[in-house]
């Protein structure tokens, strides 16, 4: 389903509410061009998980780790050259753990993203500078939480 976000504050509210709903083992894949808002959204999700550290995009490190209500692994796979490189960093230890994982540019590792992942595709809107369209795709087990999220935010 598609939701329309009309401001950076609304994106932050969406992220924080999602962060509060995350559970151990959850993986959230984010896609969207540079500037679409993946890192902005990741920061809000981290805040929703009670993480007060300064969150930076792990573009050069591929993954950053934080400790919140759950451990959080924040990936940005923009600079990996192929999926093989994810094995080199031992991605399975992160993905199949008791943490939550956020993956920016998850479309670049399509074969490694678990089918149970929540997918958030961010697109720039056409109406104004802060408009974003978020396409949410998920397996059935996410549906209840996604519905709760959208209800909570009146989206
Ligand atoms: P990405 O990680 O996808 O490259 P960033 O989150 O780093 O994107 O950058 C998004 C940019 O767009 C930021 O400069 C942010 O201030 C701006 N922005 C404007 N409106 C929004 C919005 N509704 N949601 C997210 N970011 C927004
Ligand atoms: Mg980013």
In whole angstroms, how far apart are the ends?
Answer: 11 Å
Sheet having the most strands: 7 strands, mixed
Low-confidence stretches: none
Beta strand % = 15-25%
Distinct bound molecules: adenosine-5'-diphosphate, magnesium ion
Query: Which strand order does the major sheet show?
Result: 1-7-6-2-5-4-3
Structural class, by secondary structure, is alpha/beta
Secondary structure tally, helices: 5
Mean pLDDT, to the nearest integer, reads 96
What is the multimeric organization of the chains shown? Answer: single chain
Can you give a write-up of this model?
- The protein has 155 residues and is α/β, with parallel strands linked by helices.
- It has 5 helices and 7 strands.
- The chain has a 7-stranded mixed β-sheet with strand order 1-7-6-2-5-4-3.
- α1 packs across α2.
- The longest helix has 14 residues, at 8-21.
- It starts with a strand and ends with a helix.
- The relative contact order is 0.23.
- The model has no long low-confidence stretch (mean pLDDT 96).
- The structure holds adenosine-5'-diphosphate and magnesium ion (MG).
- Adenosine-5'-diphosphate binds next to α1 and α2.
- Residues 5, 7-8, 11, 32, 34-40, 104, 130, 132 line the site of adenosine-5'-diphosphate (ADP).
């Amino acid at each position: 389903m598609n939701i329309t976000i009309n401001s950076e504050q609304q994106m932050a509210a969406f992220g924080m509410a999602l962060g509060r709903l995350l559970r151990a083992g959850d993986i959230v894949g984010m896609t969207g061009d540079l500037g679409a808002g993946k890192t902005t959204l990741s920061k809000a999700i981290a805040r929703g998980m009670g993480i007060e550290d300064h969150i930076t995009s792990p573009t050069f490190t591929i993954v950053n780790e934080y400790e919140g209500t759950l451990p959080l692994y924040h990936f940005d796979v923009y600079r990996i050259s192929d999926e093989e490189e994810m094995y080199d960093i031992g991605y399975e230890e992160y993905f199949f753990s008791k943490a939550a994982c956020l993956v920016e540019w998850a479309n670049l590792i399509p074969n490694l993203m678990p089918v149970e992942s929540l997918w958030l595709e961010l697109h720039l809107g056409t109406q104004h500078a802060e408009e974003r369209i978020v396409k949410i795709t998920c397996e059935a087990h996410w549906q209840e939480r996604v519905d709760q999220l959208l209800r909570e935010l009146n989206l």
